[in-house]
Design goal:
The chain has 300 residues and is mainly α. Helices cover 60% and strands 1% of the residues. It has a two-stranded antiparallel ribbon. GO terms for molecular function: oxidoreductase activity.
Length: 300
């Protein structure tokens, strides 16, 4: 196994507590699990989300159909629930939840977009991989080897393929992914819908109002700092030497503190969202004909 998997060799087993024993899509020592078990990655979710909606078709679909503005916490719960189900759930959980997502996305259509379009599925999966790699390396102060990047990329193809995207539509190898991703960053032109969604994501209406101000300020700084420069410039976000220093200071503090926390603390978000997902899926099993609204995460 790769070096990164042995990084916390003295930690207890990190499988989901009290979860089903059925086989999942991945093993505990697969990089997709070693990396995405870290709850801190949620802090980079804004960057991934707004990279996704930098694609005009993704942006329009989210703008027309999303409930992000009305209930941002529900969107977060549903998106993270699906991701953790795919990464750490049983095969049945991953496939059942993904079928719900595909069904929900079938209604997300417009004059120039369909949420189940493989082109959009590939881009969304690409952003999830790229941002996770970028932020994990910053927090844990390490650089992945080419072999690790190839392994992790191959595993994260599941974000698209489990939703019906043919695997051959995706870049086949990590070097091919790099060419695809660089080309997308050069050619994407964000729209007014992209900018409107960015306002919703970076300044959400949350219970508690001003109490969330410090945390939201940190998330906005992380989002801007993690965003590739060509996209950041199109969003019109100010980025100068002072903001760069604040970003580096914030990441430095996270890198100093977070990896020293017990693994059980770092994986609490996974446990929480998986528990909610399993309760939802159990309810569906008891009522197989029920139509559950608002289960599927947004496209992007």
């Amino acid at each position: 196994m790769t070096v990164i998997a042995n990084q916390h060799a003295d930690d207890p087993a990190d499988g989901p507590a009290d979860g089903p024993a059925d086989e999942g899509l991945f093993r505990d020592d697969d990089l997709i699990r070693v990396i995405t078990r870290e709850g801190v990655l949620i802090a980079a979710g804004g960057a991934a989300s707004l990279l996704q909606t930098a694609h005009p078709k993704v942006a329009q679909g989210v703008y027309d159909h999303s409930y992000t503005a009305d209930d941002p916490l529900r969107r977060l719960r549903n998106t993270m629930g699906w991701l953790y189900a795919v990464q750490f759930g049983t095969r049945e959980e991953a496939e059942t939840f993904s079928a719900l997502v595909t069904k929900g996305h079938a209604a997300v259509t417009g004059p120039d977009y369909e949420a189940n379009d493989p082109e959009l599925q590939v881009w969304v999966a690409a952003t999830l991989f790229a941002v996770a790699v970028q932020f994990y390396q910053l927090v844990f102060r390490r650089t992945f080897t080419d072999a690790e990047l190839e392994e992790f990329y191959r595993q994260t193809k599941v974000y698209a393929t489990i939703l019906g995207c043919p695997e051959e539509r995706m870049p086949g190898t990590y070097p091919q992914f790099r060419e695809y991703y660089a080309g997308m960053l050069r050619t994407l032109e964000i729209t007014d819908a992209s900018r409107a969604i960015a306002e919703q994501v970076l300044d959400p209406r949350l219970p508690g109002g001003p109490l969330h101000a410090p945390g939201l300020a940190a998330i906005r700084l992380l989002t801007a700092g993690l965003m590739p420069a060509p996209i950041r410039e199109q969003y019109g976000w100010t980025w100068n030497a002072a903001r760069e220093r604040r970003f580096r200071l914030l990441v430095g503090v996270i890198a100093l503190v977070y990896p020293r926390l017990p693994l059980r603390v770092r994986t609490l978000p996974r446990e929480y969202y998986l528990l909610r997902t399993r309760r939802m899926l159990a309810k569906l099993k008891r009522r197989p004909a029920a139509v559950v609204r608002g289960v599927a995460p947004d496209q992007g």
